[in-house]
Specification:
The chain has 171 residues and is mainly α. 65% of the residues lie in helices and 8% in strands. Strands 1-2 form a two-stranded antiparallel sheet. Helix 4 crosses helix 8, helix 8 crosses helix 9 and helix 8 packs across helix 10.
């Protein structure tokens, strides 16, 4: 089994790829789970250690969130990012954050992704500031989030995000 992102990446490249694996043996099942990066493998192993999260749910989560975004969500107690993943409700998201927060802070995966996490934090802060500014102008959060999904936020400054959002919201 592999995440959808990993399968798409392998299909696109057509090259030889290294796949990190997790071999899982149960009474009635023997499975191999494949990952393109060691960070995905570590995230998977952390997730299956959470009570109530099985291997299939962990693979679904990997298909919908990057390891760095996942780490950021856990460290910042942001259950709203986890709830957006299919099959993860509010209680599961809260349990994941509760059980993994201490483990993730000491995990080497976070240390190696420190710069990526900092970039995600900066981008997230920029987005939150833009949302706050647009809410002050009278727009509701749901329509703001829909507009922000359409924008390439990594390339834009905070001012440009607000300007472009206002242009779209004004139509």
């Amino acid at each position: 089994f592999m995440s959808e992102n990993a399968i798409e990446t392998i299909g696109e490249t057509g090259k030889i790829v290294k796949v990190h694996t997790h071999y899982r043996v149960r009474e009635d099942d023997i499975s191999i789970y494949g990952f393109l990066t060691n960070d995905e493998l570590k995230m998977f192993e952390l997730l299956i250690g959470v009570s109530g999260i099985g291997a299939k749910s962990a693979i679904t989560m990997l298909s919908n969130i990057t390891p760095s975004s996942f780490a950021l969500a856990i460290i910042s107690n942001d259950t709203s990012k986890l709830v957006k993943i299919p099959g993860i409700g509010a209680k599961s998201a809260a349990r994941i954050v509760l059980e993994l927060k201490d483990k993730l802070k000491t995990t080497e995966a976070v240390k190696t992704q420190n710069t990526q996490i900092q970039q995600v934090i900066i981008e997230d802060n920029k987005i939150q500031e833009a949302i706050s500014a647009l809410q002050v102008l009278g727009y509701n959060r749901k329509e703001i989030e829909k507009v922000l999904e359409k924008l390439d936020k990594t390339e834009l400054s905070l001012e440009d995000i607000i300007r472009n959002s206002l242009t779209i919201l004004g139509k």
